[in-house]
């Protein structure tokens, strides 16, 4: 399968390339004449919590999809003025990634991909910078989320601890919450990251649906949520509502998933295909008819429904906020999964899924994501977990 050559999204996280960019001469704030073609790409980027006339000091960088593009021989960026406007004049036709960053690093970056034709002027969707993550709230019901498969209840917290966070309710801390207890805590602040774990019991999904407006409004107003949208697992919970922005998925188990973007921080250096029992529990099926923007698709089904390979890993903006969502059972693969190794690698499929989970958390928190694929180290599982290796459904 031919790899799609995307742009170095890893640079969002590393911040190395962008810090060394040198713009060409610009006569107006937010404008640059690339002088390599006859097309123009322009748009606006704002902060989620500031008036639109206070959108200065946002760096917008232009990166071409094609490695051979003359645009990539130099580094083109602009710094916005108060109106948040940017414009790249006289660029070649092609597909581009636009990266918007707060030069003061108080906000998370935003990005968008678009294609422009010969002698075309195109206005991009508005990009919104959201608040840097300072606290993480993990929703996981006791005894759920693959608990019977030997997955530790602290699976997400363990990852957060490894990157320097501690458990608690303050800054640089994470906490666990449930929905099924009496008077669930549904108070969120800007700067919180909500993580909804997969394979929740039916009661969790029912209560979430009852209170979905609270979650939707949190994202709508600038919040960030990571939804592991993997239902119909060991807990048999079936989510029939919608993610923020109205996104839904259809239930369908697929053993294979295809990587769409190989240069994204989450999938950098991954094989073309992932294999597991199962690789995904469904596919997002209404992305073209929802109230969302800045859609990015990272992974998709291999089988699909015979005509469409539905996305299984997406990122999008809902009004001012940000959503990262996957139908892959990422937590299950922390201790379970296929132990075979893709050709040319020294890492098992099990550990690739686990790595995807770790990278996802680091990425959505705007932390450094290493492009390395660590080799697998043989582990000894107890008999219970060995019996569970064939399926997590």
UniProtKB/TrEMBL annotation:
It comes from the Bacteria. InterPro entries: Class_I_gatase-like (IPR029062), Ig-like_fold (IPR013783). This is Cna protein B-type domain. It comes from Dictyoglomus thermophilum (strain ATCC 35947 / DSM 3960 / H-6-12).
């Amino acid at each position: 399968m031919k790899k799609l050559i995307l742009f170095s999204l890893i640079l969002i996280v590393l911040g190395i390339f962008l810090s060394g960019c040198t713009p060409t001469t610009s006569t107006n704030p937010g404008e640059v004449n690339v002088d390599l073609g006859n097309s123009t790409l322009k748009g606006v980027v704002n902060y989620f919590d500031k008036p639109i006339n206070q959108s200065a000091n946002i760096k917008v960088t232009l990166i071409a999809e094609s490695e051979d593009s003359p645009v990539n021989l130099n580094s083109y960026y602009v710094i916005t003025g108060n109106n948040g406007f940017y414009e790249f004049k006289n660029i070649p036709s092609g597909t581009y990634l636009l990266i918007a960053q707060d030069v003061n690093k108080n906000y998370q970056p935003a990005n968008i991909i678009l294609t422009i034709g010969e002698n075309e002027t195109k206005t991009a969707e508005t990009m919104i910078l959201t608040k840097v993550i300072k606290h993480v709230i993990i929703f996981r019901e006791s005894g759920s989320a693959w608990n019977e498969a030997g997955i530790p209840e602290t699976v997400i917290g363990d990852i957060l601890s490894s990157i320097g966070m501690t458990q608690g309710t303050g800054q640089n801390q994470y906490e666990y919450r449930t929905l099924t207890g009496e008077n669930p805590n549904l108070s969120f602040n800007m700067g919180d990251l909500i993580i909804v774990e997969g394979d929740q019991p039916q009661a969790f999904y029912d209560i979430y649906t009852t209170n979905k407006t609270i979650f939707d409004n949190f994202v709508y107003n600038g919040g960030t949520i990571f939804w592991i949208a993997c239902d119909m697992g060991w807990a048999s919970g079936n989510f029939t509502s919608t993610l923020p922005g109205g996104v839904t998925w259809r239930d369908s188990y697929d053993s294979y998933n295809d990587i769409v973007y190989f240069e994204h921080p989450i999938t950098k250096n991954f094989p073309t295909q992932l294999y597991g029992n199962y690789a995904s529990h469904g596919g997002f099926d209404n992305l073209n008819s929802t109230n969302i923007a800045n859609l990015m698709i990272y992974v998709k089904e291999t089988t699909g429904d015979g005509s469409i390979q539905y996305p299984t890993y997406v990122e999008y903006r809902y009004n001012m906020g940000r959503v990262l969502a996957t139908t892959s059972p990422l937590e299950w693969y922390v201790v379970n999964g296929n132990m075979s190794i893709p050709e040319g690698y020294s890492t098992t499929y099990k550990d690739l899924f686990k790595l995807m989970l770790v990278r996802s958390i680091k990425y959505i928190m705007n932390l450094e994501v290493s492009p390395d694929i660590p080799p697998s180290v043989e582990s000894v599982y107890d008999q219970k977990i060995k019996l569970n290796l064939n399926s997590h459904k």
